Structure formats: C-alpha cells, structure tokens
Amino acid sequence: MAKLYKRGKVWWVDYSDYLWRRKRKSTRCTDKEAALAMLANFLTYEQHLRAGIMVVSREHKKMPFERHVKDWAKSRAADKPDEGDRLYIRKAARFLNLAAQSCGWQTLGDMTKASVTRYLEERSTTPNEHGDMPASKTIANFASYLHAFGDWCVEDERMVTNPCPHPGRWSKAAKFPRRALTDKELRSLLTCETIPASRRATYALLVVLGLRKTAAAYVTPDMVSVDDDGQTWVNVPVYVWVFKDGLVYYTKNQFSRCVRLSKSGQPMKIPVPSQVVPMLRAMIDGKPGNRPFLERGLSAALFQSDLRSAGVNPIDYLGRKAVLHSTRMTGNTLMAICGVSTSARMRLFGWSDPRFAENTYMDRALLDGPAMEASERLGSVVLPMLPQATAQHEEKQEIS
Predict the structure, then answer these.
(1) 32-38 contact pairs (CB < 8 A, 24+)
(2) How many CB atoms are located within 10 Å of the residue 330 CB?
(3) What class does CATH assign to 65-170?
(4) DSSP state for residue 269 in the 8-state scheme
(5) Which residues is 14 bridged to in the sheet?
C-alpha cells in the first residue's frame, strides 16, 4: 500500500521498499501530480530491486569498486578496533582489490555470482609461485573475504543480495588429511644425524610446547622466564612488532609490522619440561633478548624432506599426510596416550573448546594401543563370569 499525504505545503510518500520495510520520505513537491509521479518512480525502483532486475542501489551504481572497499574497511575498523582485526581488514582489502583487478570489477554491478564463483574456482586450480596447489583452507579464506564484503554491502543497502557464495562451500576436506607422528617416528626424526641439530631442537620444542609455526618464528629469549619454584616458562604474547632487521618488540612502532602469535587472542604461558630445559638454555645462551632463536624458514615441504631423511614416510597407510603443523597434533595425541586429562591439554595448548583436544588435534589411529589395553582390562573383569555362563549354556544344550 502506497499513499500520499501532506505536511504543511509539501507532499510526502508512504510506501514499502523491496524488503517490505515501511518508508516515509518527502517529495519536496508542492504539486500533487508531481508528487504522484515521484511516488510511481519510487515504487518502480523498489519493484526492480525486489525482482532482481537491479542488484545495486541507484546512489551506488557508478561508484568505483575501490571506493566501496575503502568504505568497508573504514566501517569494519570502526566497529572492531583490535589490532588483530586491523590485520584481517588490511589483508582482506588487499585481496578484494586484487580480485577486482583480475575479474575486471569496475563497480559493484560487475561483481556477479558467476564471476565470483569462476574466480574462486580458478584460484583453487592455479598453483602458487612455489608450484604448490592452494589448500582448501586458503580458498575458504578468500571466499570468506568476499562473503563478508558482500554482507556489508547488503547491510549498508548498497546491494540487494550478496553475490558471493558462503565460504562453507569451499571448506572442503583436505585431499590428504593431517596425521600425527608415532613415538617411534618422532624418535627417528629427532635422532637423525643428517638433519641439523638446531632444526631437530626446533621440532622438539614445537612438539613439547605446542607452538604454531608463526609463534615459533618469533619466540625470543626475553619470553623465557623462571619462577620462584624453578619452573621454566615460555610467555607468548598476543602481538609482537617486528623490524626489518628481525628484532622483535612488545610495543607498537610505526617502522615495524605487527604479527599475531596467539589465535585465541589471549597470551599464553607454556611450561617447559625439565628434560628440555638444558637444550632450551643452550639455544638461547649468548643470543640477544629480542632476536628469535628458533630456526626460521620451516615449511611443510622441508619437514617432509626431513622425515624422509629419518626413514619416515610422510603419508601413512590411510593416505594421511604429516605436515609441520602435525607436531601440534603429535604432542596432543602422545599426551592423551599417556593419560593426560583433556583440561590439562587445553590449558597447555591454549584451547577454549574441548573439541580441539579430542577431535581436531587428536589422531585416533594412534589410540589403538590404549583401546586394546582398555579391552584387556574389561576382559579381566568379565573373565570370572565366563566359565559359569558357558557351563550353564552347555548344560541347556545337553538337556534339549
């Protein structure tokens, strides 16, 4: 229902937009016929939007695509001023502009569902500069940037519908799921003489501390502390600022870049096992307090090469692949086998959801041993009942 009404000498219109929301606005006309013509234009415009004929609002139809990206980044930064969100905004804005250049998006109207899907499919099948195919998680991140931008355009009434598909469509399972290393494989890796000692020490710390690759790359001697009881800790902050010379600082500086070390957004305080403390002390001895001491440049390809040098096949009989991040899964799985509680593992690895400890970073194929031991214990409980039950069954068969 649409109607005209008068406020003073000016005619106003009352109608429903394409989402059936009530709108009232001034026509700035004192002539009724002119006001009726404007109301007809408003209704035609809303009907085109509702039918999908026009997917971009009139006032944003000719605005350059880069301007929309800047407005989105500015709005997102105002809503979420945290430094980690600012890193996400800069990364997403850079990707959106590159996608626009690659697809030829000059305005929002050029960003259609077909062009977005085609671009993501091309990225998923195009090797990167190292010759490796992008992971499904990488493509899902690209899709999430586009989807978030499209949602904002709809909320800001710049577009009618979001042309970007939901990122869940691209969150496919990896072709080679990750696996953990067995205790024998881990021992072979850490004792292989052909692998540099510094790299083997880094692998050992990745397992026992549960560090991710990014956090391990920027751990400095200043982050290692000893409490009054003699316990050694590694204190990992949420953010650090890195200069071009590689020095790491805890305070922001305009000449440095920010690196996020904690995905949970909380600082981590990780205890160091007493057996590993001498090796850790040897690694940081004589090093500057603000310079990383663990080996840099680690990658999945280098890790798999070291596994082969140690006589370990990165791919097991189930087709699962051991990658650098498998050190985190290895530490969690080995602790579970040793009987460490879920809450203790969550505290050590900085998880807030028990599903990370029990599902995401748990290699259940390595739990066959504990399962067999539990089965034996159950059998020892049931064993005293078996002879009597068997004898009664045989007696019944003889009677029949």
Answers:
(1) 32/4, 35/4, 35/11, 36/4, 38/13
(2) 27
(3) mainly alpha
(4) E
(5) 3, 24
Q: Which amino acid is at 212?
A: R
CB count in 10 Å sphere of residue 197 = 12
Concatenate the DSSP letters of all residues of 182-245 into one string: PHHHHHHHHT-TTS-HHHHHHHHHHHHH---HHHHHT--GGGEEE-TTS-EEEEE-SEEEE-TT
- Measured in whole angstroms, the distance separating CA 277 from the mean position of its chain's CA atoms is 31
Along the chain (400 residues), what's the average pLDDT of each consecutive run of 10 residues? 87 84 88 90 77 64 89 83 71 92 89 87 80 77 90 84 77 65 91 91 91 88 89 89 76 72 85 90 87 86 91 88 90 89 89 88 81 68 62 52
- d(CA 227, CA 204) in angstroms, rounded, equals 23
Collapsing DSSP to helix, strand or coil, 270 comes out as strand
CATH number, span 183-362: 1.10.443.10
Q: Where are the domains of the chain?
A: 3-54, 65-170, 183-362, 369-399
Report phi then psi at 161, rounded to 5: -130, 160
Distance CA 295, CA 321 (A): 23
**Rounded to a whole number, what is the largest CA-CA distance in the chain?**
109
Asked if residue 305 lies in contact with residue 324, where contact means CB atoms within 8 angstroms, the answer is no
Task: Write down the pTM of the prediction.
Answer: 0.64
Neighbours of 314 (CB within 10 A): 21
- Measured in residues, the chain has a length of 400
